[in-house]
Design a protein that fits this description.
about 325 residues, alpha+beta, 6-stranded antiparallel β-sheet, two-stranded antiparallel sheet, 9 helices, about 35% helix
Length: about 325
């Protein structure tokens, strides 16, 4: 019996020693803190760092403006998803006026392929955008073959609502919807319009248009820095260049101001288009510029609050 008792006692001793060794070994591998750090208890798990708030951007939402006129519409494309949202009538059209000059310049430069433009042509490309120079735009339009320039626009940018002016294919009278205008903006932004060599140059020219909406000296100097860009907070404009091309004309044929605003960034492209009484009316292009700014402001998300001084929406369209 004694040998058996001795064996049992030995086994018990080994088991007790093992149980005592486990915490000691665990403490050794955990730098002496064990399960709960110094003093034991529950392990302290660090709280996750708060996530940074999203950068302000433009996103689709309700738009209300104090607009009195014949036609008003807008469209916004999310360039990351390609999704387009806008007014219920965003497929209705307006004459493009000078807004289309950004395409005319892009189309000419893309078709050069590996050739460099002459100094004269490059200056025309610059002034057609920066100063909205009609003579420069017409020269590049002629160089591109006139109507084929617009046919390439419709085909390459996959436009669905755009119609070419039937008589002489005048670029300013091209009928385009806000939906197609943001497609054109995306086409310029993604390099389809001007090609890899000239896209950055075109977008930079659009980001550096000159002159206010009141600075209209002639057909060669037409101030173009107004509209959508005036409705954006610094938190958006500081993220990178906002490339714009606006257009307006008072057409005597219908007595209406035709006003269009286009803006392109890496994340979105926005178009606002309208017509309102011109002849014998107190409204000027400045009225349309404020409408464009107001639309942009209302689409900013998250909203910056009341500190931003922009045209305030009144009434619902």
């Amino acid at each position: 019996m004694r040998p058996r008792v001795t064996m049992v006692l030995a086994i018990v001793a080994v088991l007790i020693g093992g149980v005592m060794l486990v915490p000691a070994a665990y403490a050794k591998f955990s730098d002496g803190d064990g399960l709960g750090g110094i003093g034991g208890g529950v392990a302290q798990v660090p709280a996750p760092a708060p996530s940074a708030p999203p950068e302000p951007t433009l996103a689709a939402g309700p738009v209300s403006v104090d607009f009195k006129g014949k036609f008003f519409s807008w469209a916004l494309m999310d360039r990351k998803t390609g999704k387009i949202n806008g007014a219920p009538n965003m497929t209705s059209t307006n004459s493009t006026e000078s807004m289309i000059k950004a395409w005319i310049v892009s189309d000419y430069l893309r078709n050069l392929r590996d050739k460099a433009p002459s100094a004269t042509r490059k200056k025309q490309a610059e002034t057609a955008i920066r100063d909205s120079n009609d003579i420069s735009a017409e020269a590049l339009y002629n160089a591109g073959g006139r109507k084929p320039v617009l046919e390439r626009l419709i085909k390459m940018c996959k436009l669905t609502d755009t119609k070419i002016e039937p008589a002489k294919a005048k670029w300013a009278y091209t009928q385009m919807s806000p939906q197609d205008a943001v497609r054109m903006g995306d086409c310029i932004g993604d390099g389809t319009a001007a090609g890899p060599k000239w896209t950055k140059w075109v977008l930079n020219e659009m980001a550096n248009v000159r002159g206010s909406v009141k600075d209209q000296k002639s057909t060669t100097v037409q101030g173009g820095h107004w509209g959508i860009v005036d409705g954006l907070p610094e938190s958006i404009t500081s993220q990178g260049p906002v490339s714009i091309k606006n257009g307006f004309t008072m057409l005597w044929a219908d007595g209406q101001w035709h006003v269009n605003c286009l803006a392109v960034t890496d994340d979105w492209t926005l178009a606002v288009m309208m017509r309102y009484p011109g002849a014998g009316n107190t409204k000027t292009p400045s009225y349309g510029a404020k409408v464009c700014a107001s639309v942009a402001t209302q689409l900013v998300t998250p909203q910056p609050g009341a500190a931003l001084k922009v045209p305030q929406p009144v009434g619902k369209l």
